[in-house]
Amino acid sequence: MASQPTNIHISAHPCLRAKLSQLRSASTNAPDTKRLVHDISTIIACEALGDTLSTVETGTDESPLGYQYTTESISPSNISIVPILRSGLSMVDAVQTLLPSPVAVHHLGMYRDKATLSAVEYYNNLPQHSATDAAGQMDIAIIVDPIVATGSTLCAAIETLKDWGAPRIFCFVVLATEGGLKRAAEVWPEGVDIWVGGVDPETDEKGMIKPGLGDIGDRLFMTVGK
Protein backbone atom coordinates (compact mmCIF):
# COMPACT_ATOMS: atom_id res chain seq x y z
CA MET A 1 0.00 0.00 0.00
CA ALA A 2 1.82 3.09 -1.28
CA SER A 3 1.96 6.34 0.71
CA GLN A 4 -0.27 5.11 3.50
CA PRO A 5 -1.22 7.48 6.34
CA THR A 6 0.96 7.12 9.43
CA ASN A 7 -2.00 6.02 11.54
CA ILE A 8 -2.51 2.86 9.45
CA HIS A 9 -0.56 -0.20 10.57
CA ILE A 10 -0.58 -3.25 8.29
CA SER A 11 0.58 -6.52 9.82
CA ALA A 12 3.40 -8.44 8.17
CA HIS A 13 3.16 -11.38 10.57
CA PRO A 14 3.68 -14.59 8.56
CA CYS A 15 1.24 -16.62 10.66
CA LEU A 16 -1.44 -13.99 10.17
CA ARG A 17 -0.86 -13.95 6.41
CA ALA A 18 -1.14 -17.74 6.23
CA LYS A 19 -4.34 -17.77 8.28
CA LEU A 20 -5.81 -14.96 6.17
CA SER A 21 -5.15 -17.06 3.08
CA GLN A 22 -7.08 -19.94 4.68
CA LEU A 23 -9.92 -17.59 5.64
CA ARG A 24 -10.30 -16.44 2.03
CA SER A 25 -11.21 -19.93 0.81
CA ALA A 26 -14.85 -20.58 -0.09
CA SER A 27 -14.40 -24.09 1.32
CA THR A 28 -13.72 -22.83 4.86
CA ASN A 29 -16.73 -23.77 7.02
CA ALA A 30 -18.36 -21.68 9.76
CA PRO A 31 -16.44 -23.16 12.75
CA ASP A 32 -13.11 -22.71 10.97
CA THR A 33 -14.10 -19.20 9.88
CA LYS A 34 -14.79 -18.31 13.52
CA ARG A 35 -11.47 -19.84 14.65
CA LEU A 36 -9.45 -18.07 11.96
CA VAL A 37 -11.03 -14.68 12.69
CA HIS A 38 -10.26 -15.22 16.39
CA ASP A 39 -6.64 -16.17 15.66
CA ILE A 40 -6.08 -13.23 13.31
CA SER A 41 -7.71 -10.85 15.79
CA THR A 42 -5.38 -12.09 18.53
CA ILE A 43 -2.29 -11.38 16.42
CA ILE A 44 -3.57 -7.92 15.47
CA ALA A 45 -4.37 -7.09 19.09
CA CYS A 46 -0.95 -8.33 20.27
CA GLU A 47 0.83 -6.10 17.77
CA ALA A 48 -1.36 -3.06 18.46
CA LEU A 49 -1.36 -3.21 22.25
CA GLY A 50 2.31 -4.15 22.40
CA ASP A 51 3.12 -0.95 20.50
CA THR A 52 0.89 1.37 22.50
CA LEU A 53 0.42 0.18 26.09
CA SER A 54 2.92 0.17 28.93
CA THR A 55 2.98 -1.27 32.45
CA VAL A 56 2.94 0.39 35.86
CA GLU A 57 3.81 -1.06 39.26
CA THR A 58 0.70 -1.57 41.37
CA GLY A 59 2.01 -3.11 44.59
CA THR A 60 3.41 -6.42 45.84
CA ASP A 61 2.19 -9.98 46.14
CA GLU A 62 3.54 -13.36 47.23
CA SER A 63 4.45 -16.26 44.95
CA PRO A 64 3.51 -19.91 45.75
CA LEU A 65 7.02 -20.35 47.22
CA GLY A 66 6.55 -17.40 49.56
CA TYR A 67 8.70 -14.87 47.72
CA GLN A 68 7.60 -11.26 47.36
CA TYR A 69 7.33 -9.79 43.91
CA THR A 70 6.18 -6.50 42.37
CA THR A 71 2.80 -6.60 40.65
CA GLU A 72 2.17 -4.76 37.40
CA SER A 73 -0.83 -3.66 35.39
CA ILE A 74 -1.33 -2.10 31.97
CA SER A 75 -1.46 1.64 31.37
CA PRO A 76 -3.76 3.13 30.29
CA SER A 77 -6.24 0.71 31.83
CA ASN A 78 -9.63 2.32 31.04
CA ILE A 79 -10.34 0.46 27.81
CA SER A 80 -13.63 -0.44 26.14
CA ILE A 81 -14.29 -2.72 23.17
CA VAL A 82 -16.83 -1.58 20.59
CA PRO A 83 -17.84 -4.31 18.14
CA ILE A 84 -19.74 -3.36 14.99
CA LEU A 85 -22.68 -5.74 14.79
CA ARG A 86 -22.84 -8.39 13.79
CA SER A 87 -19.50 -9.65 12.50
CA GLY A 88 -17.51 -7.56 14.98
CA LEU A 89 -18.71 -9.91 17.71
CA SER A 90 -16.32 -12.55 16.35
CA MET A 91 -13.30 -10.42 17.37
CA VAL A 92 -14.37 -9.50 20.91
CA ASP A 93 -13.24 -12.68 22.67
CA ALA A 94 -9.71 -12.44 21.23
CA VAL A 95 -9.21 -8.91 22.59
CA GLN A 96 -10.84 -9.69 25.94
CA THR A 97 -8.66 -12.76 26.40
CA LEU A 98 -5.50 -10.75 25.72
CA LEU A 99 -6.28 -7.96 28.20
CA PRO A 100 -5.32 -8.77 31.81
CA SER A 101 -8.60 -7.56 33.32
CA PRO A 102 -12.23 -7.55 32.10
CA VAL A 103 -13.30 -4.49 30.13
CA ALA A 104 -16.63 -3.05 29.08
CA VAL A 105 -18.13 -3.96 25.70
CA HIS A 106 -20.39 -1.41 23.99
CA HIS A 107 -22.17 -2.42 20.80
CA LEU A 108 -22.83 -0.39 17.67
CA GLY A 109 -25.26 -1.73 15.08
CA MET A 110 -24.71 -0.48 11.54
CA TYR A 111 -25.54 -1.74 8.09
CA ARG A 112 -24.53 -0.53 4.65
CA ASP A 113 -27.35 0.79 2.48
CA LYS A 114 -27.28 -1.28 -0.73
CA ALA A 115 -28.17 1.67 -2.95
CA THR A 116 -25.92 4.38 -1.55
CA LEU A 117 -23.28 2.19 0.21
CA SER A 118 -23.51 4.63 3.14
CA ALA A 119 -23.70 3.48 6.78
CA VAL A 120 -27.01 3.43 8.63
CA GLU A 121 -26.96 3.13 12.44
CA TYR A 122 -29.72 0.99 13.91
CA TYR A 123 -28.37 0.28 17.41
CA ASN A 124 -26.16 2.13 19.90
CA ASN A 125 -25.67 1.08 23.52
CA LEU A 126 -22.94 3.52 24.48
CA PRO A 127 -23.60 4.79 28.02
CA GLN A 128 -25.68 7.95 28.23
CA HIS A 129 -22.86 9.74 30.01
CA SER A 130 -19.86 10.96 28.03
CA ALA A 131 -16.60 9.00 27.83
CA THR A 132 -14.97 11.84 29.78
CA ASP A 133 -17.40 11.70 32.73
CA ALA A 134 -15.99 10.26 35.93
CA ALA A 135 -18.66 7.55 35.95
CA GLY A 136 -17.59 6.15 32.62
CA GLN A 137 -14.12 7.50 31.95
CA MET A 138 -12.49 5.84 28.96
CA ASP A 139 -8.90 6.18 27.76
CA ILE A 140 -9.16 4.00 24.66
CA ALA A 141 -12.10 2.70 22.65
CA ILE A 142 -11.24 -0.31 20.49
CA ILE A 143 -13.51 -0.70 17.47
CA VAL A 144 -13.51 -4.27 16.14
CA ASP A 145 -14.86 -4.94 12.66
CA PRO A 146 -13.46 -7.70 10.42
CA ILE A 147 -14.13 -5.99 7.08
CA VAL A 148 -13.59 -2.44 5.83
CA ALA A 149 -14.69 -2.18 2.21
CA THR A 150 -15.82 1.34 1.27
CA GLY A 151 -14.97 2.55 4.78
CA SER A 152 -18.36 4.16 5.37
CA THR A 153 -19.26 1.99 8.38
CA LEU A 154 -15.91 2.48 10.13
CA CYS A 155 -16.02 6.23 9.43
CA ALA A 156 -19.48 6.44 10.97
CA ALA A 157 -18.36 4.45 14.02
CA ILE A 158 -15.35 6.72 14.52
CA GLU A 159 -17.55 9.81 14.27
CA THR A 160 -19.99 8.34 16.80
CA LEU A 161 -17.24 7.59 19.34
CA LYS A 162 -15.54 10.93 18.75
CA ASP A 163 -18.82 12.79 19.35
CA TRP A 164 -19.41 10.68 22.47
CA GLY A 165 -16.07 11.87 23.85
CA ALA A 166 -13.65 8.97 23.38
CA PRO A 167 -10.18 10.57 23.62
CA ARG A 168 -8.45 7.86 21.57
CA ILE A 169 -9.72 5.20 19.19
CA PHE A 170 -8.05 2.00 18.02
CA CYS A 171 -9.55 0.07 15.11
CA PHE A 172 -8.79 -3.65 14.65
CA VAL A 173 -9.62 -4.94 11.17
CA VAL A 174 -9.00 -8.32 9.52
CA LEU A 175 -9.17 -7.18 5.87
CA ALA A 176 -9.69 -3.82 4.18
CA THR A 177 -9.38 -2.02 0.87
CA GLU A 178 -6.80 0.68 0.35
CA GLY A 179 -9.48 3.30 -0.28
CA GLY A 180 -11.60 2.31 2.71
CA LEU A 181 -8.61 2.40 5.03
CA LYS A 182 -7.47 5.84 3.88
CA ARG A 183 -10.97 7.22 4.16
CA ALA A 184 -11.32 6.00 7.77
CA ALA A 185 -7.80 7.13 8.71
CA GLU A 186 -8.58 10.66 7.58
CA VAL A 187 -11.70 11.09 9.74
CA TRP A 188 -9.71 11.99 12.88
CA PRO A 189 -5.98 11.43 12.20
CA GLU A 190 -4.76 12.68 15.56
CA GLY A 191 -7.15 10.46 17.54
CA VAL A 192 -7.39 7.23 15.53
CA ASP A 193 -5.00 4.39 14.77
CA ILE A 194 -5.99 1.45 12.56
CA TRP A 195 -4.39 -1.99 12.66
CA VAL A 196 -5.27 -4.31 9.79
CA GLY A 197 -4.37 -7.87 8.90
CA GLY A 198 -4.44 -7.52 5.13
CA VAL A 199 -5.26 -5.10 2.32
CA ASP A 200 -6.96 -5.74 -1.03
CA PRO A 201 -6.93 -3.12 -3.79
CA GLU A 202 -10.62 -2.45 -4.44
CA THR A 203 -14.31 -3.35 -4.24
CA ASP A 204 -16.67 -4.59 -6.92
CA GLU A 205 -19.84 -2.82 -8.11
CA LYS A 206 -21.73 -4.17 -5.08
CA GLY A 207 -19.19 -2.78 -2.65
CA MET A 208 -17.65 -6.18 -1.83
CA ILE A 209 -13.88 -6.48 -1.47
CA LYS A 210 -12.03 -8.22 -4.33
CA PRO A 211 -10.91 -10.98 -3.84
CA GLY A 212 -11.95 -10.45 -0.23
CA LEU A 213 -13.63 -12.78 2.24
CA GLY A 214 -17.23 -12.63 1.04
CA ASP A 215 -19.88 -11.63 3.58
CA ILE A 216 -17.99 -12.59 6.72
CA GLY A 217 -21.10 -12.18 8.89
CA ASP A 218 -23.04 -14.69 6.78
CA ARG A 219 -20.09 -17.08 6.87
CA LEU A 220 -19.76 -16.80 10.64
CA PHE A 221 -23.43 -17.22 11.41
CA MET A 222 -24.32 -19.69 8.61
CA THR A 223 -26.76 -17.36 6.88
CA VAL A 224 -25.20 -17.43 3.39
CA GLY A 225 -27.91 -17.14 0.75
CA LYS A 226 -30.61 -15.96 3.17
Structure explained in plain terms:
This protein has 226 residues and is α/β, with parallel strands linked by helices. The chain is built from six helices and 13 strands. Strands 1, 4, 5, 6, 7, 8, 9, 10 and 11 form a nine-stranded mixed beta sheet that branches. It has a two-stranded antiparallel sheet with strand order 2-3. A hairpin with a 5-residue loop joins strand 12 (202-203) and strand 13. Helix 1 (14-24) packs antiparallel against helix 2 (30-52). The radius of gyration is 18 Å and the shape is globular.
Gist of the model:
With 226 residues, this protein is an alpha/beta fold. 31% of the residues lie in helices and 31% in strands.
Tell me, what's the shape? globular
Strand fraction equals 25-35%
Radius of gyration: 18 Å
Q: First CA to last CA: what distance?
A: 35 Å
The helicity comes to 25-40%
| Mean pLDDT metric | 90
Task: Map the helices and strands.
Layout: E1 8-10, H1 14-24, H2 30-52, E2 54-62, E3 68-75, E4 79-85, H3 89-98, E5 104-105, E6 108-112, E7 119-124, E8 140-144, E9 147-148, H4 152-164, E10 169-177, H5 178-185, E11 192-200, E12 202-203, E13 209-210, H6 216-221
Parallel strand pairs: 1-11, 4-5, 4-6, 4-8, 8-10, 9-10, 10-11
Antiparallel strand pairs: 2-3, 6-7, 12-13
